[in-house]
Amino acid sequence: MFDAITGLIQQGGYLGILLLMFLENVFPPIPSEVIMPLAGFLAARGELNFIGVVLAGTLGSFLGALPWYYAGAVWGEARMRKLAQRYGRWLTLSAKDVSEASLWFRSHGSKAVFFGRLVPAIRTLISVPAGIAHMPFRRFAGYTLAGSLIWTTVLTLAGYLLNAEYERVATLLDPASKIVLAVIVLVYLYRLLKTNSREDCREG
Questions:
Q1: What is 79-105 written as a DSSP string?
Q2: Per residue in 67-101, pLDDT tens?
Q3: Has residue 103 got a pLDDT over 80?
Q4: What is the residue range of 57's domain?
Q5: Within this chain, do residues 147 and 72 fall inside the same structural domain, yes or no?
Q6: What 8-state DSSP symbol labels residue 162?
Q7: Same domain, 41 and 77
């Protein structure tokens, strides 16, 4: 997995980083905690520019937040909950997730968008209640960009500082990442089957 992601970033360069971070926000196939340190490692080797890596990662993260923001703004909380109940199983997004993110947003105000970008569990979801509340786009963009910039910089710096040690870490990380990926797939399938069984019971 390590070699595959590294190769993808090497071939795609900054555009590859941007696309991976965009996808990580829309539907997280690979977490940013893997993408950005790898990109930072390549920057330390001189294959990429550190600032370019951070900017590409930040922009990709910001663009990935926009679909959720506009979904919240267009559909509203009630319809987002219904959509989550109907289609959320494919993204492992539940109506409860929407409600909890909305509650968190109401409790912490618009600054929740900034701090939310620094919390892995709600980095993506926090954009939904921001849209539902019709948070002014400039404010949303400012907080999202600021939070994403800090997050991507820290992760990129971690990979950059490891530098020569990263390949040594990678020998341990690669089998571990495969196990983590397998667990993620199994949890996804479990939640998918569990949701389907609940719907079958309701229909029955």
A1: HHHHHHHHHGGGTT--HHHHHHHHHHH
A2: 989 988 888 877 777 776 665 555 556 667 777 77
A3: no
A4: 1-162
A5: yes
A6: H
A7: yes
Between the alpha carbon of residue 155 and those of residues 36, 78, 79, 95, the distances in Å are 6, 35, 35, 30
Q: Give the span between the Cα atoms of 34 and 58, in whole angstroms.
A: 15
For 164, counting Cβ atoms within 10 Å of its Cβ (0-12 exposed, 13-18 middle, 19+ buried), the class is exposed
Which residues contact residue 77 at a Cβ distance below 8 angstroms, ignoring those fewer than 6 apart? Answer: 98, 99, 102, 129, 132
For residue 79, give every residue at least 6 positions away whose Cβ sits within 8 Å of its Cβ, in sequence order, or none.
none
**Does residue 188 share a domain with residue 103?**
no
Same domain membership, residue 190 and residue 139 = no
Q: Are residues 102 and 116 in the same domain?
A: yes
Q: How many domains would you assign to the chain?
A: 2
pTM as predicted: 0.72
Contacts of 121 (CB under 8 A, 6+ apart): none
| Whole-angstrom distance, CA of residue 33 vs CA of residue 177 | 11
Same domain, 130 and 198: no
For a pLDDT cut of 70, what percent of the chain falls above it? 68
What integer is the mean pLDDT of 126-134? 85
Minimum mean pLDDT range among 13-22, 40-49, 108-117:
108-117
* pLDDT tens figures, 132-161: 888 899 999 999 999 999 999 998 988 888
